[in-house]
Specification:
mainly alpha, 11 helices, iron, 65% helix, Haem_Oase, globular, Heme Oxygenase, Chain A
Length: 231
C-alpha cells in the first residue's frame, strides 16, 4: 500500500476533531515561524507590538462571534456556540486598558486581518467552514494561548488580568475538560466524508490567513536589531 493511500485511509478512520488536529499540524507549526511570534513567546516583543496584536484579535473575534450568534440555532454551527468562550468583551477591556478610553478611534485592521475577517463572515453561509475557523482560533487560545498569557503577564508587568483578559477563560472551569467536551461536540456532528475533508481544508486556509496576518505584523512592527543581527 502506498504512503498516500495509507494516509488517506488513516484520515478517513479518524474522528473529525482528530482530523482537524492531525491534518493541520504542519500549518499550525508555521504560525510560530515568524519573528513576531518568536518575540512574543520569548518575551522580547515591544509593548506596541503586543498592542497591535490585540487590535487584530479584536477585529477577528468580532467577526467570529457575529457568525457564532447568527448560527446559534443551526444544527452544525450551533454545536460550538459557547457564549462563555466569547472574547470580544475581554478584548474591549484590554484595549481600553492598553490604549485608553478612546481606543475605538485609534484602531484599524491590517489588510491581512481584514481579509481574514471577511473570510470568517463568508462562512455564515457554510456552517462546517465556520466550525473550522472556530476550532483553529479557540482551541489555540485554550492551549498555546495559556503559555502566551504567562509570558505576556511577566513581560509587560500586567496584574489582575488587565491587558491580557483575552487569555483568561475563568467561565469555563477546567480547560482540559472543556476542550474534551468541545471535541466531543465536533465528533457528534453528522458530516459526511466530503464535508469533513472540505472543513479540514478550510482549517488549513485559516492558518494561512493567520500566517499572513503575522507576516504583516512582522513588517509593520519590525523588532529592534540586536548585536547578533547587526550588519
Amino acid at each position: 500500500m502506498g504512503t498516500a493511500q495509507a494516509t488517506q485511509q488513516q484520515s478517513a478512520s479518524s474522528t473529525f476533531s482528530e482530523r482537524l488536529r492531525n491534518d493541520t499540524w504542519q500549518a499550525h507549526g508555521a504560525a510560530e515561524a515568524h519573528d513576531f511570534s518568536r518575540a512574543l513567546l520569548s518575551g522580547t516583543l515591544p509593548r506596541e507590538g503586543y498592542v497591535a496584536l490585540v487590535v487584530q484579535h479584536y477585529f477577528l473575534y468580532t467577526a467570529l462571534e457575529e457568525v457564532s450568534r447568527a448560527l446559534a440555532d443551526h444544527p452544525v454551527g450551533g454545536a460550538v456556540h459557547f457564549p462563555e468562550l466569547h472574547r470580544v468583551p475581554a478584548l474591549e477591556r484590554d484595549l481600553a486598558f492598553l490604549c485608553g478610553p478612546d481606543w475605538r478611534e485609534a484602531v484599524a485592521p491590517l489588510p491581512a486581518t481584514r481579509a481574514y475577517a471577511e473570510r470568517i463572515r463568508w462562512t455564515a453561509d457554510w456552517p462546517a467552514g465556520f466550525i473550522a475557523h472556530h476550532y483553529t482560533r479557540y482551541l489555540g487560545d485554550l492551549s498555546g494561548g495559556q503559555l502566551i498569557k504567562k509570558v505576556v503577564q511577566r513581560t509587560y508587568g500586567f496584574d489582575d488580568g488587565a491587558g491580557f483578559e483575552f487569555y483568561v477563560f475563568d467561565r469555563l472551569g477546567s480547560l482540559p475538560r472543556f476542550k474534551n467536551g468541545y471535541r466531543a461536540a465536533l465528533d457528534a456532528l453528522e458530516l459526511d466524508e466530503a464535508e469533513q475533508r472540505r472543513a479540514v481544508e478550510e482549517a488549513r486556509l485559516a492558518y494561512r490567513f493567520n500566517n499572513e496576518m503575522m507576516a504583516e505584523l512582522d513588517r509593520s512592527h519590525p523588532l529592534p536589531r540586536t548585536p547578533d543581527h547587526a550588519s
